[in-house]
Amino acid sequence: MLEKIFNLKTNNTSLKREILAGITTFVTMSYIIFVNPQMMAESGMDYGASFVGTCIAASLACFFMGLYANWPVGLAPGMGLNAFFTYTVVGGMGYPWEIALGAVFWSGILFTIMSITPLRKWMLEGIPLNLRIAMGSGVGLFIGLIGLKSGGIITGNDATLLSLGDLSEESTLLSILGFLIIAILSMRKVSGSIIIGILTITSISIFSGLVKFKGIISLPPDPLPVFLKLDIIGAFDVAMISVIISFLFVNFFDTTGTLLGIANRAKLVKKTGEIQNLDKAIKADSTSSILGSFFGCAPVTSYVESSAGIEIGGRTGLTAVVTGFAFLLSIFLSPLSEMVPPYATAGVLIYVAIIMLSDVERLDWSDSTEILPALIIIIMIPLTFSIANGIALGFITYTLIKLTSNRHKEISPSAWFLTLIFLAKFIFL
């Protein structure tokens, strides 16, 4: 049965190897079941319902990827996108989380349309590589800023905007320790370094009396406070266009880059250069974002952490299915999730931010008309506390610099299209 569905022998793998790969992938990305509910709760969502929603959305997405595309890739709500959801769309722009979920739904619809039409190729080829890289790096800085703030490492200051926090605080010291644990274990290539860091800091907090022990396993919380609570009609508004576009393009380029990178590692590239079932993998990812919005999640996306499972032999969708089952079983870990303090996940955010910033080395620094708009995106996403504003300012800068440099022919139709939309946002909204 499994051989027929996943073609284990054809892909030179075995049941044992796929199960081990699936568990490894889950361990490396399981931190999201602790981080995501915390962020979504700050938007006003019920924590317990968000925890269950995160687990179920990730589980179903993994099942879909494994059974439909036969790819060894785990999916879950995206880091950075959840921060944008909470701190910008809800916190900064003042939209209720129900409308923000509606924007996630519409971005998923657009992503799905792109995945089944020539629009995907049009966008991939039309958006300059530097700007695509800058989006990911800017989101990384955004996540890092949130991590530093939640860990108490930086704090607000009326005179300087930001300043160093009180390093004598126990919670601040523990957030720094959490980051160091994750960084050291990662450098030593220990699988699950992030989740080890989270659980270590949580354990220290329990034994030191900072956190009250509530147990490990229980029946799942009620998911109904967030299930199907998205406001699709409310999000269908001109003012939400930039938000929807930001969700769409960060997810689109992140997903595409992740899948292309994983394809090589998983030996899914044929001798002709064609990538096996790439279209199906992208369709599975895009439709998962729609599904995730029903469960109260920011856009669901493919995780680069899947490469950990691939490194130990995961080659088929069975790896993703095993990961999905692990996420499903996690719904019984709500007491553990509730004990994880924000400073225990701060180190995670800082570490992930640094990893995302590593793509900066891929930027083309030789062309000022390309690098300056990219740097605008990277800098302005965290400083405006908005992915949407950072991307918008970057595209507008790109078009203006190309025009004034007499290089207007290098501006693609898709870049023109996005620039005009972002200009309209600042002028009319």
Which structural class do the helices and strands define? mainly alpha
So how many helices? 20
- Please state the overall shape, judged from the principal axes of the Cα atoms: globular
Tell me the helix content.
55-70%
Regions with little confidence, pLDDT below 50 for 5+ residues = none
Ends: how far apart? 56 Å
Strand arrangement within the widest β-sheet reads 1-4
Gyration radius, to the nearest Å? 21 Å
What does this structure look like?
- By secondary structure, this protein is mainly α.
- The chain has one domain (2-361).
- It is built from 20 helices and four strands.
- It has a two-stranded antiparallel ribbon with strand order 1-4. Strands 2-3 form a two-stranded antiparallel ribbon.
- It is globular.
Write a concise keyword list for the protein shown above.
429 residues, two-stranded antiparallel ribbon, 4 strands, globular
List the helices and strands and how they pair.
Elements: H1 2-6, H2 15-29, H3 32-42, H4 47-69, E1 75-77, H5 81-90, H6 97-115, H7 119-126, H8 129-150, E2 154-157, E3 161-164, H9 170-187, H10 193-207, H11 232-235, H12 241-265, H13 278-294, E4 300-302, H14 306-311, H15 317-329, H16 334-339, H17 342-357, H18 368-383, H19 387-404, H20 413-428
Antiparallel strand pairs: 1-4, 2-3
Helix pairs in contact: 2-15, 3-4, 3-5, 4-13, 4-15, 6-12, 6-13, 8-17, 8-18, 8-19, 9-10, 9-17, 10-17, 12-13, 12-19, 18-19, 19-20
